[in-house]
Specification:
Largest sheet of chain A: 2 strands, antiparallel
Structural class of chain B: mainly alpha
Strand order of the largest sheet of chain A: 1-2
Helix content of chain B: 55-70%
Distance between the termini of chain A: 10 Å
Number of domains of chain A: 2
Largest interface: A-B, 53 and 43 residues
Radius of gyration of chain A: 25 Å
Oligomer: heterodimer
CATH class of the largest domain in chain A: Mainly Alpha
Shape of chain A: elongated
Radius of gyration of chain B: 23 Å
Number of strands of chain A: 2
Strand content of chain B: under 5%
Order of helices and strands of chain A: HHHHEEHHHHHHHHHH
Structural class of chain A: mainly alpha
Largest sheet of chain B: none
Chain lengths: 336, 303
């Protein structure tokens, strides 16, 4: 077990390095660069060129990547954080520290000042959604999987295949038209002004509903498949033959085994949710992480894109690791 | 289990060795899955929806529709459905029905082309990784791991925002994002297939690696891949729509379903149908692909 986990963790660190380099390389295709964005649209080409040279942006890609990584690891200061440039950009947390993502050219503040606040907003949204998705889809999946072909099962199949055919923004538009426009019972947007905290609880209903509808059909189908698979195994037949009641057979024997495979699927849904929030937050104007990533990407704010994708990767990859560990704990066969 | 009928294609003399060999390879690889399609009502409904959009898209130039980019300034005041604009107009007065039908052409070309391109790249990588264990496999699998670690939407947003929105760049982004997953499936199938007798026989005949992979292994991967292909088509339609909605899709003024939703969303509280029509079009097409995939899957499992 420890050997397996250490190898997994090492592979993850390598994945981080490779992925962050990949993002760094991709953003280089963007027509704008840090010098132009920092100085704004009205700066003269000569001024931009001067800053471009001072920041050594003409250096090879790998050199600039290593420099960026050095800032992140706290070895160097952010090159923009230099009084000699006269930009008045000062990192309030001190120049060198681990996790220095640099300066956002879009929001004109250090990346660390914006990203965690936005991530918190998204965590609330995704957390509520997740807390509904997991029990709901488990319940539906178990009910459908207990009697394949029953009305409950048919209904679940039809609903889930319809829901998986709907992009998040389609669900969002339909729900908003239904509840916010025609029935007028819910607000159609979720504008949380900075520092206002929770806002109206009803503002969360529609975005959460979109995420829940988008995701739970898929998870329920996985639970159903696993349930059907387990119920067909010999030890269940033994349990029935030995005279156990159906309720006892399902609760004591089937459920535990049927939860092993969906466990991984459920944790990997976190990865899906990160993608889902990008769209959902855009539909409902929710000031979260996904909306920020989209704005940063459209603007070409390299520091913010790098920071956001790295944070998204950390979340995605650590849930993968968690699912590996959980799988290992749940299924004794893997441990052998 | 099931009788397999080997029929000589017209124009090829049955009995010549080369003809028999090729027919048998095809017959073994495609166990009539597509021929038995009519026996699955789910698949037929899916196929029907897809054909509906394909036919509309093909007929677009012949239908009596206004141009998808022409603006009717008079209609902007009352943009709802009317006799002159059956599904209404968009916020700048362009006919919604016309844009939907012309938009179907865009999505029905871009989605299959992207998925085919992703399949070409993904299969080639998967075959190579499955056939050459060691360095080649390690390299391909690690790169695939890195790309698969990204949340998919994040990958699309970062890629398209950097390289710019165009039909070609969408194809490239779909290839980058989907090829690793396809290569994983093909690699797994290849690993199983290369251990089988017919591959050993090909080795004995001293066939080249390319021949073995393309003629012996690849056709046998077809069964599991057909379902995945349909699902991926539906998913790519969603992706193209999502990119359009995020402002990263086919650039305006070309009619793009996702872009239509994006332009109509600010008017949602006043004219919800403006956004609902393109949403319904997109959902119906994706549903078509998903139903077809579901039906194919059931047929394949019934074997």
């Amino acid at each position: 077990m420890p050997g397996f986990l250490i190898r997994r963790a090492l592979a993850l660190v390598l994945t981080f390095v490779a992925a962050s380099f990949l993002v760094f390389a991709v953003t280089q295709f963007s027509p704008s660069d840090v010098a132009r964005e920092t100085l704004g649209a009205y700066a003269l080409p000569e001024q931009v060129q001067l800053l471009h040279d001072k920041l050594q942006l003409g250096d090879p890609l790998v050199v600039r990547y290593v420099r960026w990584a050095a800032v992140l690891l706290g070895v160097r200061k952010d090159p923009l954080d230099n009084p000699g440039l006269g930009l008045n950009i000062v990192e309030p947390h001190g120049g060198r520290f681990f996790g220095n993502f640099g300066y956002s050219t879009l929001f004109r503040v250090p990346v660390n000042d914006i990203i965690w606040n936005r991530l918190g907003n998204t965590a609330i949204l995704a957390g509520i959604a997740f807390a509904i998705i997991v029990p709901l889809s488990m319940l539906l999946g178990i009910l459908a999987g207990m009697r394949p072909g029953s009305p409950v099962d048919r209904l679940l199949s039809v609903t889930s295949i319809t829901m998986t055919s709907m992009p998040e923004y389609a669900i969002g538009v339909i729900l908003a038209a239904l509840f916010a426009v025609w029935l007028k019972v819910l607000p159609g947007t979720s504008p949380l002004a900075a520092g206002t905290g929770w806002g109206l609880p009803s503002q969360y209903v529609l975005p959460v509903a979109v995420l829940v509808l988008y995701d739970s059909g898929y998870v329920a189908r996985m639970v159903r498949a696993s349930m059907i698979d387990v119920l067909g195994r010999p030890f269940i037949r033994t349990a029935i033959l030995k005279g156990l009641s159906r309720r006892r057979m399902i609760l004591r024997h089937a459920l535990r085994n049927a939860m092993i495979a969906p466990f991984t699927v459920i944790l990997l849904q976190v990865n899906w949710l990160i993608g889902g929030v990008v769209v959902t937050e855009t539909v409902f104007a929710y000031p979260g992480f996904g909306q920020m990533l989209l704005q940063a990407s459209l603007f070409g704010d390299i520091s913010l894109i790098e920071a956001a994708t790295l944070v998204a990767l950390v979340v995605a990859i650590s849930t993968q690791l968690l699912s590996d560990v959980g799988y290992w704990l749940l299924d004794p066969q893997v441990r052998a | 289990m099931r009788p397999t009928f080997v029929r000589a294609p017209s124009g090829v003399a049955a009995g010549t060795p080369s003809a028999v060999l090729s027919i048998e390879t095809i017959a073994a690889a495609r166990p009539g899955l597509l021929k038995r399609l009519p026996s699955s009502p789910v698949a037929m409904v899916g196929l029907g929806i897809i054909l509906f959009w394909v036919i509309l898209a093909l007929l677009a130039p012949l239908l009596p529709l206004p141009s998808p980019t022409a603006q009717d300034y008079v209609a902007i005041g009352h943009p709802g459905p009317s006799w002159s604009h059956l599904l209404g107009v968009d916020p700048i007065g362009r006919d919604t029905l016309s844009r939907l039908i012309w938009g179907a052409r865009v999505v029905l070309v871009v989605a299959p082309v992207s998925v085919l391109a992703a399949y070409t790249v993904g299969s080639a990588l998967g075959l190579a990784a499955g056939y050459y264990p060691g360095l080649v496999d390690g390299l391909i699998s690690r790169v695939a791991d890195v790309i698969l670690a990204f949340p998919v939407v994040v990958l699309y947003v970062v890629l398209i925002a950097a390289v710019g929105a165009s039909a070609l760049n969408i194809v490239v982004a779909v290839v980058v994002a989907s090829a690793p997953a396809i290569s994983r499936i093909v690699r797994g199938l290849t690993l199983q297939l290369v251990r089988q007798d017919f591959v050993a026989a090909a080795h004995l005949r001293r066939e080249s690696a390319l021949f073995i992979l393309v003629v012996e292994v690849l056709p046998n991967c077809r069964g599991p891949l057909i379902t995945d292909f349909c699902l991926r088509l539906g998913y790519t339609v969603i992706t193209i729509g999502t990119l359009g909605f995020l402002g990263l899709g086919i650039p305006p003024p070309a009619p793009d379903w996702g872009g239509m939703v994006q332009q109509a969303t600010p008017m949602l509280t006043v004219y919800p149908e403006m956004a609902l029509f393109p949403v319904l079009a997109l959902v119906s097409l994706v549903l078509g692909f998903n139903l077809l995939a579901d039906g194919l899957n059931e047929l394949a499992r019934a074997d």
